[in-house]
């Protein structure tokens, strides 16, 4: 089987970008990633897109290809909520490994902060709830995650301070990253004193809403040996799916991340202990905490105390979300998950200026969509 | 200003919502494998049989988990703040989402016993949970 490698990665500015558009962000990210790979537009024979809130379309990938002037041999849009970026990378790897494509462009972007009315993104996100059996009860995405948080805290003794330390760690990393959307220092007290959105989650337990775009190029390993940048191998990928609606989740302690990560580790021939840096979906503080334990990076009940102790910081036991994550770097829909992928590539290339995890060789990336519903894990290695 | 969402029945759920208007909560019981399921589907999610039977529940259950919502997802819910959103385990072994109403939000806890009640929303009654009334 051919090996799939990430040859190019790029993300646009992130944050409040008045004047940006969904398609302009897509193309800026795409052009950046293609150039980063040392390729030209004509080398791209596969395109994967995600979804958009501001320019929703039945055929977003076709709209994008037309906008940018691409006529690929393979083209599709994928929608699995926050798992989309990782699922697209997994699909791109499969296209390259099977010989159907040589260079697949994986591109995301949205202007959901400046391109929608106030509250528009939150209202659109709430549509992951069930129209007949969840919406009538006033469920939002934060309140659905709060249902998981109440259960998990009760079951495993997790404290609000521990959750707050996840938010504080993300902010500390964002402060090291000049591109991050939020850079004001915060303390655990700031998180605990911030407005409660849905108990036990405060506003500072929640991710941002940002404009931005990100793209990567996945290539067949044997193509071209004059690449400008260090290549990153897609060593293992895996998915896990247990439900869509939180009312139908078979467990509130274990989710599809367990299966996704096990499969990815097994295919890569590594274990959680081998990982040097982790970029894990952090839509809420509870999201990251549950995933860290369900995946097996920490024993049950230990991720919270470990984070308070600095384990997730750069230089800690498991440096995590080194760019600042969805909580402080930015969240632009499917691009939010793609920021994690781009950051993993930067860490493995040793080009994460000011926040580099020393000599990182192996990265783990994870995305989750819905209410911990759809999961995809990637194990990436420096070639 | 638009009001709170009113469920719109489809062919899978019409029997359920009609029963709610008689203040009865129905689940589906599979005559092939014996599993109970909620929400209503055209087939049994366990064995794919379409030999399903409607069964009225006892109306008792417990709070599986909950949250006190303090930021409304839409203007229609602002007047209700703070309100409790909960997952309820019904005694028949199925899980549903409801609000826990007719009590102080601070009194709701995991494992709390509840009984079903029905709230009129437009022309449709929707199931809700409330603490079991004493006596
Ligand atoms: Zn059955």
Task: Give the CATH topology of the largest domain in chain A.
Answer: Peroxisomal Thiolase, Chain A, domain 1
Give the N-terminus to C-terminus distance of chain B in angstroms: 41 Å
CATH class of the largest domain in chain B equals Mainly Beta
Can you tell me the CATH superfamily of the largest domain in chain A?
A: Thiolase/Chalcone synthase
Low confidence ranges of chain A: none
What is the helix tally of chain B?
A: 1
Main attributes?
heterodimer; A: 383 residues; alpha/beta; Peroxisomal Thiolase, Chain A, domain 1; 9-stranded mixed sheet; two-stranded antiparallel sheet; 12 helices; 19% strand; globular; B: 135 residues; mainly beta; Rubrerythrin, domain 2; OB fold (Dihydrolipoamide Acetyltransferase, E2P); 5-stranded antiparallel sheet; 3-stranded antiparallel sheet; 1 helix; 5% helix; binds zinc ion
Please give the structural blueprint:
The complex is a heterodimer of chains A (383) and B (135).
Chain A: E1 4-11, H1 22-36, E2 46-49, H2 60-68, E3 74-77, H3 84-97, E4 103-111, H4 120-125, H5 141-156, H6 160-175, H7 188-193, E5 196-198, E6 201-202, E7 211-220, E8 232-241, H8 257-268, E9 277-280, H9 285-295, H10 303-308, H11 325-329, H12 334-349, E10 362-369, E11 374-382
Parallel strand pairs in A: 2-3, 2-4, 9-10
Antiparallel strand pairs in A: 1-7, 1-8, 4-7, 5-6, 8-11, 10-11
Helix pairs in contact in A: 6-9
Chain B: H1 14-20, E1 26-30, E2 36-37, E3 52-56, E4 60-69, E5 83-90, E6 95-99, E7 113-121, E8 124-131
The structure holds zinc ion.
Structural features, described:
The complex is a heterodimer of chains A (383) and B (135). Chain A has 383 residues and is of the alpha/beta class. Chain A has 2 domains: 5-117 and 210-226, 3-Layer(aba) Sandwich (Peroxisomal Thiolase, Chain A, domain 1), CATH 3.40.47; 120-207 and 233-382, Peroxisomal Thiolase, Chain A, domain 1 (3-Layer(aba) Sandwich). Chain A has helices at 22-36, 60-68, 84-97, 120-125, 141-156, 160-175, 188-193, 257-268, 285-295, 303-308, 325-329, 334-349; strands at residues 4-11, 46-49, 74-77, 103-111, 196-198, 201-202, 211-220, 232-241, 277-280, 362-369, 374-382. Chain A has a 9-stranded mixed beta sheet, with helices on both faces. The model of chain A has no long low-confidence stretch (mean pLDDT 96). Chain B has 135 residues and is mainly β. Chain B has 2 domains: 9-56, Rubrerythrin, domain 2 (Single Sheet), CATH 2.20.28; 58-135, OB fold (Dihydrolipoamide Acetyltransferase, E2P), CATH 2.40.50. Chain B is built from 1 helix and 8 strands; from the N terminus they run αββββββββ. The longest helix of chain B is centred in the first third of the chain and has 7 residues, at 14-20. The interface between A and B is medium-sized, with 34 and 35 residues. The structure holds zinc ion (ZN). Residues 30, 32-33, 35, 44, 46-47, 49 of chain B line the site of zinc ion.
């Amino acid at each position: 089987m051919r090996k799939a490698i990430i040859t190019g990665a790029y993300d646009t500015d992130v944050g409040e970008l008045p004047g940006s558009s969904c398609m302009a962000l897509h193309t800026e990210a795409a052009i950046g990633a293609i150039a980063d790979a040392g390729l030209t537009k004509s080398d791209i024979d596969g395109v994967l897109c995600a979804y958009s809130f501001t320019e929703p379309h039945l055929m977003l990938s076709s709209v994008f290809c037309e906008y940018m002037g691409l006529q690929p041999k393979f083209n599709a849009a994928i929608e699995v909520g926050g798992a989309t970026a990782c699922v697209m990378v997994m699909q791109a790897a499969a296209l390259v490994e099977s010989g159907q494509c040589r260079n697949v462009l994986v591109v995301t972007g949205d202007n959901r902060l400046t391109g929608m009315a106030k509250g528009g993104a939150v209202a659109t996100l709430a549509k992951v709830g069930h129209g007949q059996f969840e919406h009538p009860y006033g469920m939002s995405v934060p309140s659905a995650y709060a249902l998981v948080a109440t259960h998990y805290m009760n079951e495993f003794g997790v404290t609000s301070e521990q959750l707050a330390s996840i938010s504080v760690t993300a902010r500390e990393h964002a402060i090291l990253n000049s591109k991050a959307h939020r850079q004001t220092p915060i303390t655990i007290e700031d998180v605990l004193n911030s407005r409660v959105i849905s108990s036990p989650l405060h506003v500072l337990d929640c991710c941002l809403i940002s404009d931005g775009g990100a793209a990567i190029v996945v290539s067949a390993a044997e193509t071209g040996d004059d690449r400008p940048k260090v290549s990153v191998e897609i060593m293992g990928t895996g998915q896990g799916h247990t439900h869509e609606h939180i009312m139908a989740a078979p467990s509130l302690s274990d989710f599809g991340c367990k299966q996704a990560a096990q499969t990815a580790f097994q295919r890569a021939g590594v274990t959680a202990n081998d990982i040097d840096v982790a970029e894990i979906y952090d839509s809420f503080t509870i999201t990251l905490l549950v995933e860290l334990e369900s995946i097996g990076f920490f024993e049950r009940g230990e991720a919270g105390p470990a984070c308070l102790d600095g384990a997730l910081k750069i230089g800690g036991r498991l440096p995590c979300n080194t760019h600042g994550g969805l909580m402080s770097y930015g969240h632009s829909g499917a691009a939010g998950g793609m920021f994690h992928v781009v950051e993993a590539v930067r860490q493995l290339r040793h080009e994460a200026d000011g926040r580099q995890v020393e000599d990182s060789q192996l990265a783990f990336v994870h995305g989750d969509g819905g209410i911990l519903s759809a999961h995809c894990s990637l194990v990436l290695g420096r070639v | 200003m638009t009001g709170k969402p009113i469920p719109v029945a489809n062919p899978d759920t019409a029997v359920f919502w009609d029963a709610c208007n008689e203040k009865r909560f129905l689940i589906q019981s599979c005559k092939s494998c014996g599993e109970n399921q909620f929400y209503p589907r055209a087939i049994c999610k366990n064995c794919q049989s379409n030999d399903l039977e409607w069964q009225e529940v006892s109306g008792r259950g417990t709070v599986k988990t909950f949250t006190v919502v303090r930021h409304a997802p839409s203007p229609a819910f602002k007047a209700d703040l703070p309100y409790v959103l909960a997952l309820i385990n019904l005694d028949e072994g199925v899980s549903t989402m409801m609000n826990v109403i007719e009590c102080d939000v601070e009194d709701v806890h995991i494992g709390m016993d509840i009984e079903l009640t029905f709230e009129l929303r437009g022309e449709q009654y929707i199931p809700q949970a409330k603490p079991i009334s004493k006596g």
